[in-house]
Specification:
Distance between the termini: 138 Å
Strand content: under 5%
Largest sheet: none
Number of strands: 0
Helix content: 40-55%
Length: 146
């Protein structure tokens, strides 16, 4: 029983073509990277950059306006409560400084919370004025008694 077309054996090298040697990196075209449609290319190519296009916009730094608002509110509450007047004056000064710096950043375009900076500035001023009024009233009361 001889046949003209013998059945290939289990290890026939001609059955699947010439195998590549193992542990060899895939062959890419010149340049060292796979082409955009190549199956080895992991991600699609980046879109082209248009002329005049800029990168990511600069991140806003709103910390000074927020710090002014926090210090101003706490300073105002401490100013209303008479026995914390020292803390109210310290926080009022800090709120005024932070608010002024925050408003400067808003005018330069580095921040976008001008309302918070202004509110912190106003609360800081009020937080310093209210204890001053309390102290003047206390001084006037002491002078009238003695």
């Amino acid at each position: 029983m001889s046949s003209t077309n013998p059945q290939p054996g289990p290890y026939d090298p001609n059955q699947y073509g010439t195998p590549q040697p193992p542990n060899q990196p895939p062959q890419y075209p010149a340049g060292g990277y796979p082409a955009a449609g190549h199956p080895a290319a992991g991600y699609p190519a980046a879109p082209p950059v248009h002329p005049g296009a800029t990168g990511m916009p600069m991140q806003q730094s709103n910390g000074m306006g927020t710090a002014a608002l926090v210090c101003g509110i706490i300073g105002l509450v401490c100013g209303i409560t008479y026995f914390l007047w020292v803390l109210a004056i310290i926080l009022g000064i800090l709120a005024i400084i932070f608010g002024a710096v925050g408003k400067g950043k808003v005018s330069r375009g580095e921040a976008n919370n001008g309302g918070s900076a202004t509110a912190g500035l106003v609360c800081g001023i009020l937080g310093m004025v209210i204890p001053a009024i309390y102290l003047m009233a206390l001084d006037a009361a002491i002078d009238s008694v003695f």
